[in-house]
Amino acid sequence: TYQGNLKRLFVALFGIAAGLTVIWYTAMFTVLSFLQGTMRVQETVAQVIVGVGALFGLGFFVLFGWLSDRVGRKTPIVLG
């Protein structure tokens, strides 16, 4: 294989995925901090809310990934 393609693959795999992971975790911890600080929700309740939200997000990642495989990526992006 051509080494340039391998480099691009690793950049796409780790670079883009790492950026998206940082955005996801930043959003989750910001919501957790907002619930506990500003909204004064109990710590355990706030953690459960964020955990349930993360599980819903996981389900939607799988759903829209499947939809993207079936109809192409433009339609799920527009719907999302």
Instruction: Report the sheet with the most strands, covering strand number, pairing sense and barrel closure.
Output: none
Q: Which percent band covers the strand fraction? A: under 5%
- In round numbers, the mean pLDDT is 89
- Outline: flat
As for the number of domains, it is 1
Would you list the SSEs in sequence order as H and E?
A: HHH
Distance between the termini: 36 Å
- The total strand number stands at 0
Helicity level: over 70%
User: Structural class given helices, strands, pairing?
Assistant: mainly alpha
Give a structural overview.
- This protein is mainly alpha-helical and 80 residues long.
- The chain has one domain (3-79).
- The chain contains 3 helices and no strands.
- The protein has helices at residues 3-37, 43-71, 74-79.
Protein traits:
3 helices, flat, mainly alpha, 80 residues
